[in-house]
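Re: the request from the purification team.
They wanted to know what the chain is likely to look like in 3D before they choose a buffer screen. I agreed to run a prediction and write the result into the notebook, where they can find it.
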Amino acid sequence: MENRLCAWWFARYGARNEARGNAQLRTELLAGAAGRVLEVGVGTGLNLAHYPATVEQLIAAEPEPTMRQNAAEAAARAPVPVRIVAAFADALPVGDGSQDAVVVSGLLCSVPDPAAALADSRARQNT
């Protein structure tokens, strides 16, 4: 899946929205994350700078190549270890029950079957 227009839009407007309060919301969203974490639809990596040190391993899934490249650049500056993978929300490349937390933010409006994506995410979480 390639959508350079969407990647361009996120790169252009994402940073502006961070300054308008999204950065604080990301910090609040991720404050309780710990252990092994999977982020579904990492996009350009706007969440990556906000993960707390309690995250031991972060796998960041993104199917769009340009966004994945931007996320890789953000991962190099992240405070936690990040592995970027090419994957869709309904076919995640980690085993069932293998993650302590799964993060989905700002994604479901772009997924053809949100229920399937959420079910796949839930299966990956260690309960």
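For the purification team: The mean pLDDT is 87.
Please add any questions underneath this entry.
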